[in-house]
Design a protein that fits this description.
transmembrane, two-stranded antiparallel sheet, membrane, L-amino acid transmembrane transporter activity, disordered N terminus, mainly alpha, Amino acid transporter, globular, 14 helices
Length: 475
């Protein structure tokens, strides 16, 4: 037998193993080799499984990274942007969509720089540890878990709404909620992001078709109206009665559409060539900017200030059913990847020093499936039990996404990445952009939270708060 030193693609010390090659035996052969004690042979088996696990979780290239980022970032929520344009007006809508998108690409680049400089960072919480020690790890880890679990619940409710729309409210919404949760659970079982990337191609085609159908349908509807498209009363400027809360809800809808960096550390940890991340974030960022800006501007121009959210509801009863049907893969694939990311974080933390974390043993698979089931059930219960769940999600997004996307990456540059004086020439561009990111993040943190609380208060005032665990249709 010979010994080989294996170093993981991340280059981290804790990923290095001395693996004894066992000649003429299967990878997981349970027969000890002559001269070895049982304990020694068991160590060989565990090292071999660890090596296989490292290989399994480092198969992601930049193209597949782009796909999983698209899956995580772009969902039917993109069809809420026309209503944001209706509130802000065409000019401000386009400026916010393009400007916030470019800023998100920059902050995502900072996240990638942190991963390259500190390859041991596997999840966002690990970066929090670098900034503020154990406190930073626990704080950011808690934010990370809570936000992703709530996002899973959001996709569960969106799936329920889609099924209800397709079937004309043909069943109790709780039934469709359970069906949605089961689908989310099943799609989240594959633990490797390289495996999920295969579903990502279906996801991408699905959202493009759903958006395309909605655009065509609203365009045809507008052209057949009295006066044609020229009669659609869209405006370049914000609507006249726009309140601060409504304006901020519109802006935060755009901000949250660019929240892909929350999972970037987790995805990059599986890359076989991490330095290629720049290709992925630029590809994703430009695709997102194009999709969001075109979707928001075109559908708003076709429908006008009365555009619904999601916009496919403005396409007519039949077309909305078709679009919802085509969009089902987006709802469930994009939702399930949130379960996988938070599951990998929790599972890796529980079994940090065990081969179980590689999910290639019976114990590994049993604990993984149990964890994903628990995450899905908790997400479903929270989504059904809280009568203002959508606004709860908005509050958590204002509190957390503002940090994950904007001010945390800015802090990373100031604390972890900056070299030399703040005002050295090489640092000026980063100083300006990181400062802008910090300001934008803090404004969204305060303004978005306030706007969401005001919206909850208004819902209770108008009696529009839905019931808990209800069979009634969800809006």
């Amino acid at each position: 037998m010979s010994e080989t030193s294996i170093t993981t693609p991340s280059g981290s010390e804790k990923g290095r193993y001395n693996v004894k090659k066992v000649q003429n035996s299967s990878m997981f052969d349970d027969s000890p080799i002559a001269g070895e004690t049982g304990d020694e042979f068991q160590e060989d088996i565990e090292r071999t499984k660890a090596r296989a696990g490292e290989e399994k979780f480092h198969r992601l290239g930049w193209k597949r990274l782009t796909i999983v980022l698209i899956v995580e970032a772009i969902a039917l929520g993109s069809l809420s942007l026309p209503s944001a344009f209706a509130a802000l007006g065409m000019v401000a809508g386009v400026i916010c969509s393009v400007g916030l998108g470019l800023l998100a690409i920059y902050t995502s680049d900072l996240v990638g720089m942190v991963k390259m400089k500190f390859p041991e960072v596997a999840h966002y919480a690990d970066a929090g540890r670098l900034v503020a020690g154990r406190f930073g790890y626990e704080l950011v880890g808690g934010m990370f878990v809570l936000q992703l679990v709530l996002l899973v619940g959001s996709h569960c409710l969106t799936g329920t709404i889609a099924f209800l729309n397709i079937t004309n409210n043909g069943a109790c919404s709780l039934v469709f909620g359970v069906v949605s949760a089961i689908i989310l659970f099943l799609l989240a079982i594959p633990p490797s992001f390289a495996e999920l990337a295969i579903l990502g191609y279906i996801d991408f085609v699905s959202i493009i078709l759903a958006i395309g159908i909605t655009m065509i349908a609203t365009g045809i509807k507008a052209s057949h109206s009295a006066g044609g498209m020229s009669s659609v009363p869209w405006s370049a400027w914000p609507k006249d009665d726009l309140s601060f809360a409504d304006a901020f809800i519109a802006i935060t809808n755009i901000v949250f559409a660019y929240s892909f960096s929350i999972c970037q550390f987790s995805f990059m940890d599986e890359m076989h060539t991490p330095k290629d991340y720049k290709k992925s974030i630029w590809a994703l960022g430009l695709i997102e900017i194009a999709i969001y800006t075109i979707t928001g501007a075109v559908i708003y121009a076709f429908v006008g200030p009365d555009v619904k959210s999601p916009a496919l509801l403005s396409a007519g009863d039949l077309i909305s059913k078709v679009a919802f049907g085509i969009g089902l893969p987006v709802i469930f694939i994009s939702g399930s990847i949130n379960s996988t990311v938070v599951g990998r974080f929790i599972h890796g933390r529980i079994f940090k020093n065990s081969v179980v974390k590689y999910i290639n043993t019976p114990t590994g698979w049993a604990t993984w499936i149990g964890l994903i089931a628990a995450i899905t059930v908790i997400a479903w219960v929270i989504a059904e039990a809280i009568p203002f769940f959508s606004d709860l999600l908005s509050i958590s997004s204002s509190l957390f996404i503002s940090g994950f996307t904007y001010y945390f990456p800015a802090i990373f540059w100031f604390v972890l990445l900056r070299e030399g004086s703040l005002f050295e020439r090489k640092n000026l561009i980063h100083l300006v952009l990181s400062s802008i990111s910090m300001i934008v993040g803090l404004i969204v943190l305060v303004g978005g939270t306030y706007a969401s609380i005001v919206d909850i208060r208004n819902q209770y005032k108008h009696g529009s708060v839905r019931g808990v665990f209800t069979c009634a249709p969800l809006e």
